[in-house]
Amino acid sequence: MNALMPYAGCERHPGRREIFGDASVGVVAQTISMPSTMVGHRHEFAGLVFVRSGTGVYECETGAHRVSAGSAMIFVPGGWHGYRAGKHLRVTNVVLDSRIFDHELVWLRHDTAWRILTSGADSGDRPTSQRVVTVPAERWPRVEYELGDLERTEPGGPGERARRLGMLLSLVGELSTVLRPPRTDSDQVTRAAALLADSLKHDWTLGELADAAGFSSAHLARLFTVQVGAPPMAYLNRLRAERAAQMLIDTDLSISAIARAVGWTDPNYASRRFRVAYGVTPTAYRAGARADDQTSLH
Question: The pTM is what?
Answer without folding.
Answer: 0.54
